[in-house]
Amino acid sequence: MMKLGGEQAAPLDLPKPRKSLTVKNLTVAAPGDRNAILNGVSFSLNAGDGLGIIGPSASGKSTLARAITGIWQPLTPAGSVRLDGASLDQWTPESLGRHIGYLPQEVDLFAGSVADNISRFDPNATSELIVKAAEAAGVHDMLVGLPDGYQTMIGEGGVGLSAGQRQRIALARALYGDPFLVVLDEPNSNLDTAGDNALTGAIQSVRARGGIAIVIAHRPSALAAVDKVLAMARGQVAAFGSKEEVLKDVLRQPVTRAAQGQPSDAAAVQGTGTGEPSQSKGRPLAAEHSRDRRVIRPTASLRPVPSVSTPPMAASVTLDAGQLPVSVQNALAKSSCETGGVQ
Description:
Blueprint: E1 20-28, E2 38-46, E3 50-54, H1 61-68, E4 80-83, E5 86-87, H2 93-99, E6 100-103, E7 112-113, H3 114-118, H4 127-136, H5 140-144, E8 153-154, H6 163-175, E9 181-185, H7 193-208, E10 212-216, E11 228-233, E12 236-242, H8 243-259, H9 265-272, H10 326-339
Parallel strand pairs: 3-10, 3-11, 6-9, 9-10
Antiparallel strand pairs: 1-2, 1-4, 4-5, 7-8, 11-12
Helix pairs in contact: 4-6, 6-7, 8-10
């Protein structure tokens, strides 16, 4: 934001977002790279919506999550992510962090107490806010059962906790302070049935209080509490709409394409060599919900994705069920036969 004289002006203290998320013509590359991972992604959500993002590996799902949360920036000025009509750069990183909760695919906790990690090391955190976030994540009972409860000390990276415990504490961190937008990247990859149920309840609670919840799903249970689905393929939106309609289209496409003698999109994706940067082993260069709520990820050299317009959500959907994990295909097929969609 520039003043007339060319000086950099400080962002205004905008009101807390309450109405909408709008993603428009979003093209994104890894920091320091010009090769696009996402091309022309557009969609919008309103307060109370829950969105599930599905698609094959390397289709751009995690990149989209980073762009929506402001961690990665649009590659071109034409692309934008807006909350209540204001682009993300109109907030300071500190204020934006209060309005967005993010659970990354790779959970990174810090040396300190469990309470510190839930509160993002907020010096003004209160016991009430910390417990409220833990209860929203369904993790309160687990935490009070630890040796020192919320004050149990953990090592760097969450040493001393199981993978499932780390993921559930990170979910509480994403919910801390009731942010308007909550983005969860594969939030149930290490959860058992109880954790899955707690995750469903957390997504429902975000929607019920007028927030927006976005879930990147590889397991069908993660879609239980959403009402909309966005299907990604090769860095672009293949379908976007109600959960029932999109999943029906996803399941119908393999039969239609086979009857027409067309190859599946799964084969096409495997042949492009296009993908997202691999996650670093060990601690990222800066953690995704660190004290300043920013992230720097290792970059990777990627081939550009052809730029095409987003197809309408109808019979033109190009993502087929063969691109999804087998467990998801089986669950979606069963659900489609019984109920017309994942419930």
